[in-house]
Each structure stands twice: as structure tokens, then as C-alpha cells.
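Recall that a protein's primary structure is simply its ordered list of amino acids. Everything else, from secondary elements to tertiary packing, is in principle encoded there. The following example makes that idea concrete.
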Amino acid sequence: MISLPASVFIVVFTAINIVACLWLMWWTARTRVPAADASDRTTVDGSGKTGHVWDGDLEELNNPLPRWWLGLFIVTVVFGAAYLTFYPGLGNFAGTSGWSSVGAYEEQVARQRASFDAQLASLKGRSLQELANNGNAMAMAKNLFGANCAGCHGSDARGAKGFPNLTDKDWLWGGDEQRLLETIAQGRHGMMPALGSVLGDSGVNEVASYVLSLSGGKAPADWVSAGQQRFQTLCVGCHGADAKGNSMLGAPNLTDDVWLHGGDFDSVRATVTNGRDNQMPAHQDLLGDMKVRLLAAYVLGLNEPQAHAAN
């Protein structure tokens, strides 16, 4: 809805243009013969003389428009007037047909939603594995993933720094069906406390060195030895004595050389010093139960490529 002055301006301006077009057609339809010589129908030049002729036989005649051409112009004007009567185009006038781009969009969305809901209803009650083995279900799930998850995890689901790779079977919160459903539906909040003020610079270096050594990384032996002792004091509560993590807490396995925030010394040191705070948003209220199940099945299928090949 536009303001009343703007609407009035549009209506008046459009009406003037239609009238001007009709007048122009009427004016050009007349036969205009120069007064000086009724037999001479060439145009008048700037000095008032008739007879625009070039190369002896090329004349610029002052004839009216051909009837067929004039008819096309008239049809165009009539069509434009009819269009503005039935469809919106004159300011705030909505047109007699009641059509609007917003209404057409909403109608199309409603049809698509009804079709999608019907497909969802046909899949209701199936297990995640059954959904993962269903080609139609996975086609819908792929679109859902692209719209809701690819922004963080990437279109290929391989993640990025700070966002988990969903294809590598390395699960912070567990990768079984129930845990996947919980993660997507309820979200997750993973937090690594900052230890820089507790350990100091030397202590951080030692712990970072020990953590790197767990997955085969190279570090000074004395730093690794000292870091192991500090790890046993401060870190085993979350990561476990064997440093293999705890999926109940979202604590990562530090022995598998899979790194969420980078596995070089500087990145690990930054994690130990400043901590990390990751948030996976909940999708239950946004998507509903069935779409959450489709996404969980899709993520499950990413670790079982053969599932997507089945129909």
C-alpha cells in the first residue's frame, strides 16, 4: 500500500498518458497537405518550404499512419486500459479481478506445502533407517538440509572450522539414532572452559603439546610429560583418563586427529587458553517432528552411502 498522494499521482499520470496516446494517434491519422501546394505532400523543412527530396527521387512524405499500424496501436491502448481495470496498476486500486502478486505467491506456497505435507504423511511411522533407504524421503531431506543446515555444515555436510563434519563418524554427542534425533530437535550447547588463567603460558604450552601428542603430533618431550600431569588434573573430568571424550557432555575424543577448531599447535593452544563455546540451535519448534526425523535419517545416511542408493 502506497501513500494517497503517490497513488493519486500514479492514476492521474497514467490517465494523461493514455489520453495523450489516443490524441497522438488521432493527430497522426489525419491527412496533412501543405497549404502552398495541395499536390505536394512532402514534409515542410525548417524554413517553411515544402519538398524534402534527396538524390532526386527520395521523398519524405507527410502521410497518415497505415490503417493496420494504427489499428495495432489502438488495440494496445485498449488492452492496457483493460489490464489496468482488471489487475493492479493504478496506485492503490487493486483491480476488479482481486489478483495480487502476494496472493498468487501465497497460493503457490499453500499448494507446495500441501503436497509436501502429503508426502510427509506417507512416511510417518517409519524408522530412521527405513527413511534413509527411501529415495523420495532422502530427496526431501536433502532439500531440508540445504535450507536449514548447509549454512553451518556446508552443502556437502563436511563442516568447517567450528562446525562439525557430519560424514566422518566422529560424533561429539553420539551418532546413534536417538542421539541424532535429540541433537537436531533440542540443539546442543558445548562449552570448553578457558584454562589460560589457571595454567599460565607455560602450562598452556604443556597441555597443548600433550593433547597434540595423543593423536601423533610432534611436541617437545618435556612439555608432553608435564602436560600429561596437568591433563590428569584438569581435563579428565570431561575428556576421560584415556582422552577419548564423553558424548554425554559433548567432550571430543582427543586421540583421533579430528579437530573442530583446528589441530595445529596455535589452534590447540588458543582452545586451551580461551576455551570454546559452541551452540547448535534446536529445530523441533521450527520444523516439527517429521522433518526432524527426515534430517536425522539424512545425516545417518551420510555415514552409510549405500543407504542413499536404495529406493
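Residues 37 and 144 are 79 Å apart (CA to CA). The chain is about 55% helix and 5% strand.
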